Amino acid sequence: MKQPKELARFIESEVIRQYGAEKYLLRLFITLRDTQLEDRALSTILSVQQTVLSNKAFGPYFVTTGVLGALCDILERENNREVPEPGIVSSIAESTVDIFGWITEEVPLAEGAAILIREHNIFHLIARYILHLSKTLTARGLDYVLEFCRANEHLGQRLAARSGKNALRKDYQRALRQEWAPLLIAPDNLHTLNHPDGVRIIKLVRQAWWRLGSVGAGFNEEKEKKEYEKRAEKMCSWRECCWHTIEPPSPTKLCQGCGEARYCGSPCQRRDWKGGHERACRRLKNTSHHGPVP
Ligand SMILES: [Zn+2]
Ligand SMILES: [Zn+2]
């Protein structure tokens, strides 16, 4: 979210003063909600917004125009792609992560970070995005994740310095707690698949995520891991499932093989089986086993 000088001047004098920040966002909202828009077009539009939206005049209108919600829905949709493709698709998600980091840092809390946390469960979106990095990893995506983590670590410190009831800090901690330990527990090799620089990258992401919880929210790693293990009994075991950190609407079913892993449904069971449970299941059961019940 850096503006070349001439572009910054253009946005200031034409987009903001002539057209108007609110009107621009209202128009952008229509595009972001356009279900007919192709991935390539959306990718281009979003990468332009990374530059345009970094003018502070847009700050008061992200929520009221619906743009913030639309960006969150886009990231959620990208997270739900079963097989994310490299290139265009990863660039769509990356742009949203960049914009969220910037909003957290630069937009007044009531119009930015507070809404991201309370209404859009932003930590859930980002944690799932980090898991997806293993498949669509780019240097750009990594930078934005690190920036998002730093912006939110800084947010946590700003909230901790506040006095009074501090309801936002409690909401921040509650939302982050749900996601923090599960991602720390995720296996080390998760993000290193098919990437020559994987070891270094996983280390950087882990450090940033760890600092976000420890420094930003004041969490104790051991305590949070233990508490998640208790909670996890109700969740889907597949780490990329949206019910991995949130309790699903209907109870999970036990894996017939080991009787320990649990799933919200057979698609997750199949994915986890391929994603490593095949070996873990045998270890847990320690007898012959014929695979998951479809
Ligand atoms: Zn099993
Ligand atoms: Zn699931």
Molecular structure report:
- The protein has about 290 residues and is mainly alpha-helical.
- About 65% of the residues lie in helices and about 0% in strands.
- The protein has twelve helices and two strands.
- The chain has helices at about 5-20, 20-30, 40-50, 65-80, 90-105, 115-120, 120-135, 140-160, 165-185, 200-215, 220-230, 265-285, and strands at about 255, 260-265.
- The protein has a two-stranded antiparallel sheet with strand order 1-2.
- α3 runs parallel beside α5 and α5 (about 90-105) runs parallel beside α8 (about 140-160).
- The radius of gyration is 20 Å and the shape is globular.
- The relative contact order is 0.07.
- The mean pLDDT is about 90.
- One zinc ion binds near residues 263, 264 and 268.
Choose one word for the global shape. Answer: globular
| Order of helix and strand elements from N to C terminus | HHHHHHHHHHHEEH
**Cofactors, ions, other ligands:** zinc ion
DSSP strand tally: 2
**SS-derived structural category:** mainly alpha
Average pLDDT, to the nearest integer? 89
Strands of the largest sheet, in order across it? 1-2
How large is the radius of gyration?
20 Å
Task: Work out the helix count.
Answer: 12
Kindly state the percentage of residues in helix. 55-70%
State the end-to-end CA separation: 46 Å
Segments where pLDDT lies below 50 for 5+ residues?
none
Number of domains: 2
Strand content: under 5%
How many strands, what sense, and barrel or not for the largest sheet? 2 strands, antiparallel
